Amino acid sequence: xxAPGPEDFPARASGEPVDPDVDLRVPGQRAETAxxxxxxxxxxxxxxxAAGATARYGAERLWPTAGGAFPWTTFAVNVLGCGLIxxxxxxxxxxxxxxxxxxxxxLGVGVLGGFTTFSTYTLDFLRLVRHGEAPAAIGYAAVxxxxxxAAVWLTATLTRRAVGRVAAP
Length: 169
Hints:
This protein has about 170 residues and is mainly alpha-helical. Helix content is about 65%, strand content about 0%. The protein contains 6 helices and no strands. The chain has helices at about 20-25, 35-60, 70-95, 105-115, 120-130, 135-160. α3 packs antiparallel against α4, α3 (about 70-95) packs parallel to α6 (about 135-160) and α5 runs antiparallel to α6 (about 135-160). The model is unreliable at about 1-5, about 20-25 and about 25-35 (pLDDT under 50).
């Protein structure tokens, strides 16, 4: 099998092919294509992921959930993490704000990706169902999705106001 060529990528309106290694990244956060840059990004994501997962583990150890009980800790971690994602995305991804290119991979993908835990959310849902708490499981599923989405919207809105920008309606 040969390396992909220009014919393997969709064309832009100008007829020039799109290079997914360059053109599909968020503006202002494009990584250099050199191999060492990729390793830097992977390293900061790994370090951030370890920090975020450790924080989540600490929260679960401090506030454990009994077998059939509502998983408040996982709920709180996911809503808090999504709220922090809302703040981060406004600060580093909107209006071409100057940010070091490793901030978003470290904090967004690494720390907050490791901190939020939608895999544990799924396991908690199944645990509630297995304990005969199907209505609580469905409520947990719904309130987590609504809470996480609302947290992103609310914190992004408040952050925009705090930095003097108001989103267009």
